Amino acid sequence: MPNFPMLSIRHLTVRYGDRVAVAELSLDVARGEILGLLGPNGSGKSSTIAAIAGLLRLVSGEIRLDGLTRAERPDAYHRRFGLVPQEFALYEELSVIDNARFFGGLYGTGGRDRAAEVLDFVQLGDRARVRVGHLSGGMKRRLNLACALMHDPDVLLLDEPTAGVDVPSRDTLFALLRELRERGMAIVYTTHHLEEVEPLCDRLAVMKQGCLVASGTLAELSGLTDASCRVSARLPEALSRIDECALRSHMSPEVALSTCGHELTIIAPDAAAMRRAVRALALSGVPFDELAAGRPTCEQIYLSLTGEGASCDPALPASDAWPARIGGSSWPTAAGRRSA
């Protein structure tokens, strides 16, 4: 049997009128993998998620879930993924368990036993009879996840799932996602919080202006960038002002030095500059006990690849970011709930 990636995107292009939101994007996500999708505002992250979910028409390209395209078998395709949008897709006047059963019912799996199982998994079993309007933001995030898991999908799509939650709630959500990864689920996770991706994601894909800039592990991306290099030297005694000035005279202007007690830190813009700086340190006569190299941070790598700060993207204005249709049926957005 062919060994397909669980999610395969090939040459995906999406437009809004004359504007290209996603251009020739190709990505794979394997079973048991969390892919972090990063990019500045308007880079096409949310548009990519919406295209995978069948909410946007593709200009060109192909998306396969477990080898299936939406055109070939739309019902089977939609059962393969669960969608966790940035905005809460919940009925606040209903109870927690009734929300889970309702969304499961859209896929024919709204039974009470399945709802109880999923609520226990997201640690909301003891809140099953509570109205959603009485939940905290973190609990609503977990219920949003539970609703996406009711039909036991193979692929999970999350668009900014930690927006507005505190650190303990975020950590609880991360633990749940790691458990889903261990169960073999393929997960696509978009975020503008760079501190989230390193402890959570197996690989990263960085987008800019609708194009894929780079993809790979953090170590692999580090090798593609000119992000700053950092070396720390442990000194037998604190550096005197005279010694520090003498050391600086051996360094090129592009190299930054900082001292804190018995530690000297050298920051260079690239590996070549760092080699010259370490050679200058050795020739300066300043004694040191050991050197420790530090890798570029996730933020440095991101900034080097995009040239911009990170921010939340919808590629569309917020009111239009999620079309209110999925497949051939209306998707119950907040606006749809008010008019229902």
Description:
The protein has 340 residues and is an alpha/beta fold. It is built from twelve helices and 15 strands. The two termini are 45 Å apart.
List the helices and strands and how they pair.
Elements lengths: L6 E10 L2 E11 L3 E6 L6 H8 L7 E6 L8 H6 L1 E4 L11 H10 L6 H10 L15 H13 L5 E5 L7 H16 L3 E5 L3 H7 L2 E6 L2 E6 L1 H5 L6 E6 L6 H10 L5 E5 L2 E6 L2 H14 L5 E5 L3 H9 L18 E2 L2 E2 L3 H6 L1
Parallel strand pairs: 3-7, 3-8, 5-6, 6-7
Antiparallel strand pairs: 1-2, 1-4, 8-9, 10-12, 10-13, 11-12, 14-15
Helix pairs in contact: 3-4, 3-5, 4-5
Any descriptors?
340 residues, alpha/beta, 4-stranded antiparallel β-sheet, 12 helices, 15 strands, 34% helix, 25% strand
Short description:
The protein is α/β, with parallel strands linked by helices and 340 residues long. It has twelve helices and 15 strands. Strand 6 (155-159), helix 6 and strand 7 (186-190) form a beta-alpha-beta unit.
Q: Tell how many strands the DSSP assignment holds.
A: 15
Q: Give, in order, the helices and strands.
A: EEEHEHEHHHEHEHEEHEHEEHEHEEH
DSSP strand content: 25-35%
Query: Helix tally?
Result: 12
